[in-house]
Every structure is written in structure tokens, then in C-alpha cells.
Amino acid sequence: MPETRSIVVLTGAGISRESGLHTFRDADGIWATVKVEDVATPEAFARDPVRVQEFYNERRRGLANTGIAPNPAHLALAEFEAAFAGDFLLVTQNIDDLHERAGSRELIHMHGELAKARCEACDDVGEWREDLYIDTACPACTQVGDMRPHVVWFGEMPFEMDRIYAALEGCDLFVSIGTSGNVYPAAGFVQAARMAGARTVELNLEPSEGATLFEEAVYGPAGTVVPGWFAKLATD
Ligand code: BJW
After folding, report:
1. What residues are in contact with ligand 1 under a 6 Å CB criterion?
2. 187-200: pLDDT as tens digits
3. CA–CA separation, 29 vs 21, rounded Å?
4. How confident is the model at residue 66 (pLDDT cuts 50, 70, 90)?
5. What would the pLDDT profile of 206-229 be if each residue is shown by its tens digit?
6. Atom 68 of ligand 1, nearest CA residue
7. What is the pLDDT of residues 78-91, one digit of tens each?
8. Residues 6+ apart with CB under 8 A from 160
9. What are phi and psi of 109, to 5 degrees?
10. By CB neighbour count within 10 A (0-12 exposed, 13-18 middle, 19+ buried), where does 127 fall?
């Protein structure tokens, strides 16, 4: 294989499953217990902000649980990045902080971060580890009632899309890990990478919606498959 110079990795909820966090669309996933339209749209937040804040407060508390930690898949990506001489960009759809806890550096949270809050009045974004309430005051502008989780709901624009597409257009390897391929624009990244002539690889528990778009695939739990696949890439 020619030398790999530029890698984009996309991760989804499946990479954090073995760390104890739920996926969305598996049988025991989040969307099996709550409806998307009740908690993950701007309309839901406008209609019932208390419910939406509580949904994210509960997940934020869960992330702070001492039992939640990066698993071998998160660690393998950080270790590979540290040793790789080329360009490496990790794009995660996950709002957990397990990639940064594992040591990943070039990281984009395209769907936001659970441990941050944003003020809709002044657009200030800051770290937020506590519960959010509908009458929480913005620490920057002091406005009350405009604080929201810094996450991307359906119908909202994911973050840093220009930087992501620029990396996809210049990459020669695209690896998708632990995502079902149901949600756009992330589900379309494999096509952008193919257009750039990149080698495309899927590492997932099972074939995703877009499985046929990948040249290669390895199926199994991320904690096993990801360390093995990246260890081999490092020695190729
Ligand atoms: C394991 C494992 C293990 C399990 N090891 N693997 C009609 C057609 C096309 C598009 C649209 C449409 N109508 C509307 C749209 C757009 C819409 C969309 O895609 N809708 C679809 C449902 C059809 N998208 C949007 O609205 C987005 N914004 C947008 O498009 O803006 C306009 C735009 C246009 C052009 C360019 C750019 C922008 C916003 C999407 C926001 C998604 N938000 C959520 C929730 C917020 C964050 C949160 O609360 O956490 O993000 S939804 C949820 O899904 C979350 C996730 O990040 C996202 C993806 O889920 P993911 O990660 O794939 O999880 P699962 O559960 O689906 O899959 C897990 C996988 O892991 C499975 O395959 C398992 O097998 C596997 N697995 N255990 C390895 N141990």
C-alpha cells in the first residue's frame, strides 16, 4: 500500500459502548426509551425546556460517574495519533469527553459537547459540569433563561463543517468507527473521502447503513477491533 499521509477518523456512539455509555439506535439504545422529537430538536427545547434540560442533565451526571472511562479503542486512537507523522483528524459525533480523556489532540466534536453550555443570548460557550436549569444565568452576559446544552439537535448545523470537509478532501485514508450511518452529514463523509480517492474502512459491530460504500470492513466490538486494526496500520 502507498504511504498514508492524511487520515480522517469518524467515530460514533459504538466506540463508547464498552465504556458504559448507551448508543442511540441499538435495541437498548437511547431512542428506545425517549423519542428524538421530545429531546433532540430545537422545537422540543422551545416546547418543553425543562424536559430537554433534564435529559441532558442526567446524561451529564452519568458521564461524571467514576465508572465511565476511555476504553482500549479510545486509547488506541490517541496512541496512534501521537506516533503518526502525517495529518490526523478525529471527528466524533459523540458528545462525551472520552476521546480527550484518552489523549486525542486533533479532535472535532461535530455534534457538540455534553460538558459545555451555550448562551443563546450572547453565544458564549463554556465548560459546564453541573445541572442546567431554565432559570440558569449566563456567566458571561448574566441573561437568565437562555442557557442550553452545547449540542447539535436535528435541523441544526453541526460544528466545524468547513474544516471537516477540507480534511476529507485531502485525506488518503478514512476510517469510520462505531456509527450506524443514519445521521447526515456524518453519514455522507465516506462518499466525500471516496471522491478524494481515499481508502475507506469501516470498523463496527455490524454492517452500517452505508456498509457497501466502504472498501474494507472489520466487524466486532470496538475495544478489540480498533486497537488491532491501528496496530497493523502503524506497521504497514
Ligand atoms: C458498536 C458497539 C461496539 C454498538 N463496538 N460498534 C432526510 C434525508 C437525509 C438527511 C436528512 C433528512 N431529513 C433530515 C435530515 C438531516 C438530519 C438527518 O440526518 N436525519 C436523519 C435521521 C435522516 N441531520 C441533521 O439535522 C443534522 N444537521 C444538518 O443536517 O444540518 C444541515 C447540513 C447540511 C449539509 C451539511 C451540513 C449540515 C444534525 C444532526 C444532529 C444529530 N444529533 C444527535 C443528538 C445530539 C447529541 C446527543 O444528544 O448525544 O447526535 S442524534 C444522535 O445520532 C447523536 C449521534 O451523534 C447521532 C449518530 O448516532 P451514532 O453515533 O451513529 O449512533 P447509533 O446508535 O445510531 O449507532 C451506533 C453504532 O455502533 C451501531 O451501528 C452499532 O452496531 C455500533 N456498536 N456497540 C463497535 N461495542
Report:
1. 12-14, 17-18, 23-26, 29, 40, 93, 95, 111, 151-158, 161, 178-180, 182-185, 204-206, 208, 221-222
2. 999 999 999 999 99
3. 9
4. confident
5. 999 999 999 999 999 999 999 999
6. 180
7. 999 999 999 999 99
8. 108, 110
9. -95, 85
10. exposed
Q: Which atom of ligand 1 is nearest to the CA of 184?
A: 19
Pocket test for ligand 1, best of 18, 24, 201 (most atoms within 8 A of CB): 24
H/E/C letters for each residue in 29-71?
CHHHCCCHHHHCCHHHHHHCHHHHHHHHHHHHHHHHCCCCCCC
Structure confidence at residue 2 (pLDDT): 62
Segment 167-181 mean pLDDT:
98
Q: Catalytic residue numbers?
A: 111
